[in-house]
């Protein structure tokens, strides 16, 4: 019996080899009919004997191409039309505009095999790609995603490439960046002032330079990297000096998993992530003793590692002289990564000795994504290349909102129906370059998503660049969203939660509704509103932001808070080492309240403890003191933590660190080891948060808890707190797809704004 079915599919189904896949599946089953791209995805009709149609329909969702993602699939009956073949029909004109653009994808196995096959016509071609791999988002100028609207428009295809592109049975059918030696982009090696070096094949020459300890800026998928041999200590030190990056860890690219296995601790989940289509940087525990130059990731327990993901990377590593290469963003300190050849030479000529460039333009900048593994899952730390612009799928449709994020690790978010689009990592909006990147990302995102949001969500901090930008916009309804509410709403959105939840928002800094600096917050909230039910006790931050750079100041502030001027009588190394005059000036600042904002930040408490016990008194990068405090944990002692008190003040509970500091100072007097103290501090903090959760449940009856905020990048804290809360019978929700840090708050802002205005 013959039947005909119509199948409507939406999701990421264009530009990922979906039509050739359907073509193959239909012809294998002797079905006739067609497939065409539509506004929402693809539209299919198939006709044939009932069994064959059934087999087609059951295999379809199970065998989709690796990069496809189906969000809905609807089947309906159609009358037979007795067509004679299966055809790929041209896209319906003007309808492609709401379709999703794929993120960039690491080189696939088929292309890798061709790259090193001397008989292949693309042997050693640095831009080989196919429908299953290659650049996508970063080469887009406009939509629809079509070669003419990408930076590949500059390279008309040769007849061989065109034939592949037109053939639905070919792996390169409609692969927009398709190219070869004859028609595609090429690589050049330049010196530091941008003069081309005529050295035959530039790739072996680059390997030679790297092996000799030179710093080479290498143009990648989403921007330039600065590359240097990770085994060469003086070269790594020189890169640090030139980049003005004192201690912040560098990421390492190594040729194979086997090589990474020598450097750090791999498990099944991390192996899977490292080889996934996105090829993120993964933060993994180092193996001891360390094998790399100590300057790669000093004082750090973890190492950021990734595998080669462009053909160019594979060609560099094919030469066995390189076994591990530092690959760090091509920028000076926190500026955006360079993407254009001339711009790279202009901005990086004092950092790099040479430039390995090419003439395929990068149109949208995207840093490498950074992830870590916890609880058997990959967790986003910096969601960028390989993930953007794939949407976060929401539980329900929301109004279209543009949310502009926070000041640090900025991302923006645009919602469209059930999809929320988080932008790539934009960075810290403290310099002009980042600010330009921010405004161009807003414009670019609206263009490729074809959304003109009428609602604008922003952080309450009056001095944030993005907030000031938001307040200057006209024609949009504006909604200010509290920073920690945004964190929790982001976690709710990712986990498809509705209704009221308890939120633990723990981080460094966020503007509170009372004008103080929040960051150790227990909220009760839904998507629209929040109530602050508990928080860490306020302490002054002497010197404001100077106290962030100098954790020593927070240690003094906490000691003064709990011991007053008796702090001078404490017989502990920290106090003995204090400069009396400078410290007294700081105490006067605290007493007068001048330039000493009050904070309830968890980050600052961790900083204070780190400084007090002699781990880190000044930091070179964000959260360094807390990271090193976690790294110091020695679990060999007992599990009892330091005590904290919880007291009631009006409607709120205040988490009081007085007993903590009493006990901690006592341990220091008795010369208890730093690692033991760090462990007892972490355990005590987990314990008091568990008690706070019980109190809130007692008052509200709620038993769902969301954990969000940058402090949850602390694996010890996140794992132990989750365990503890689950033991107490709570349902605990955490982040995975969306960063728990400030890179994730734009999503939460968007959800809060959409819900407030929907009511
Ligand atoms: Zn491929
Ligand atoms: Zn060609
Ligand atoms: Fe935050």
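^ structure tokens above, recovered residues below v
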């Amino acid at each position: 019996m013959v039947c005909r079915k119509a199948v409507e599919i939406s999701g990421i189904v264009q530009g990922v080899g979906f039509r050739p896949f359907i073509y193959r599946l239909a012809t294998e089953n002797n079905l006739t009919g067609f497939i065409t791209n539509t506004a929402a995805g693809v539209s299919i009709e198939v006709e044939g004997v009932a069994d064959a149609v059934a087999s087609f329909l059951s295999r379809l969702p199970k065998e989709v191409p690796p990069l496809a993602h189906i969000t809905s699939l609807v089947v309906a009956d159609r009358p037979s039309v007795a067509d004679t073949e299966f055809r790929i029909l041209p896209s319906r004109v003007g309808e492609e505009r709401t379709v999703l653009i794929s993120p960039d994808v690491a080189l696939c196995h088929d292309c890798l095999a061709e790259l090193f096959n001397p008989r292949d016509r693309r042997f050693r071609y640095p831009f080989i790609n196919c429908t299953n791999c290659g650049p996508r988002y970063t080469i887009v100028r406009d939509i629809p995603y079509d070669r003419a609207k990408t930076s590949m428009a500059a390279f008309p295809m040769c007849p061989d490439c065109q034939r592949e592109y037109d053939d639905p049975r070919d792996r390169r059918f409609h692969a927009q960046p398709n190219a070869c030696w004859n028609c595609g982009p090429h690589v050049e090696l330049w010196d530091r002032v941008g003069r081309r070096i005529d050295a035959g094949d530039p790739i072996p020459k680059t390997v030679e330079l790297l092996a000799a300890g030179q710093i080479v800026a290498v143009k990648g998928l989403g921007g330039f990297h600065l590359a240097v041999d990770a085994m060469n200590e003086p070269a790594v030190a020189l890169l640090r000096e030139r980049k003005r990056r004192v201690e912040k860890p560098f990421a390492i690219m190594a040729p194979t998993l086997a090589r990474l296995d020598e450097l750090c601790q791999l498990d099944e989940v991390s192996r899977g992530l490292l080889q996934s289509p996105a090829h993120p940087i993964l933060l993994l525990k180092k193996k001891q003793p360390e094998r790399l130059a100590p300057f790669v990731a000093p004082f750090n327990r973890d190492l950021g590692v990734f595998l080669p993901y462009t053909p160019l990377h594979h060609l560099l590593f094919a030469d066995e002289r390189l076994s591990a290469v530092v690959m760090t963003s091509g920028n000076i300190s926190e500026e955006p990564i360079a993407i254009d050849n001339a711009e790279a030479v202009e901005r990086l000529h004092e950092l790099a000795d040479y430039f390995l460039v090419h003439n395929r333009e990068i149109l949208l900048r995207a840093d490498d994504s950074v992830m870590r593994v916890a609880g058997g899952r990959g967790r986003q730390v910096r969601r960028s290349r390989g993930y953007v612009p794939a949407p976060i799928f929401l539980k329900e449709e929301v109004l279209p909102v543009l949310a502009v994020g926070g000041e640090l690790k900025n991302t923006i978010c645009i919602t469209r129906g059930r999809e929320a689009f988080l932008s790539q990592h934009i960075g810290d909006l403290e310099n002009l370059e980042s600010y330009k990147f921010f405004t161009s990302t807003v414009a670019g995102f609206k263009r490729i998503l074809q959304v003109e949001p009428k609602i604008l969500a922003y952080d309450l901090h009056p001095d944030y660049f993005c907030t000031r930008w938001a307040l200057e916009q006209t024609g949009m309804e504006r909604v200010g969203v509290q920073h920690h509410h945004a964190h929790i709403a982001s976690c709710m959105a990712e986990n498809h939660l509705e209704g009221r939840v308890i939120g633990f928002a723990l981080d460094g800094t966020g503007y509170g509704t009372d004008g103080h600096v929040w960051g150790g917050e227990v909220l009760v909230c839904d998507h629209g509103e929040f109530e602050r039910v508990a928080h860490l006790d306020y302490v002054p931050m002497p010197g404001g932001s100077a106290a962030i750079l100098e954790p020593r100041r927070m240690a003094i502030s906490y000691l003064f808070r709990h011991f007053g001027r008796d702090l001078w009588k404490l017989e502990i190394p920290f106090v003995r080492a204090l400069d009396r005059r400078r410290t007294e000036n700081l105490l006067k600042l605290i007493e007068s309240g001048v330039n000493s904002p009050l904070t309830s930040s968890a980050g600052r408490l961790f900083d204070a403890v780190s400084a007090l016990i002699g781990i880190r008194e000044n930091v070179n990068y964000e959260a360094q003191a807390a990271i090193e405090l976690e790294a110091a944990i020695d679990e060999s002692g007992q599990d009892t933590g330091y005590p904290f008190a919880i007291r009631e003040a009006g409607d709120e509970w205040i988490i009081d660190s007085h007993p903590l500091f009493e006990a901690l100072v006592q341990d220091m007097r008795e010369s208890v080891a730093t690692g033991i103290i760090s462990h007892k501090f972490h355990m005590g903090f987990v314990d008091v948060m568990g008690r706070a959760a019980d109190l809130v449940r007692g008052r509200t009856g709620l038993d769902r808890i969301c954990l969000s905020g940058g402090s949850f990048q602390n694996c010890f804290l996140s794992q132990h707190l989750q365990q503890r809360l689950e033991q107490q019978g709570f349902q605990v929700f955490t982040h995975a797809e969306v960063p728990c840090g400030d890179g994730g708050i734009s999503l939460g802002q968007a959800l809060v704004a959409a819900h407030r205005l929907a009511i």
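The chain has a mean pLDDT of 95.
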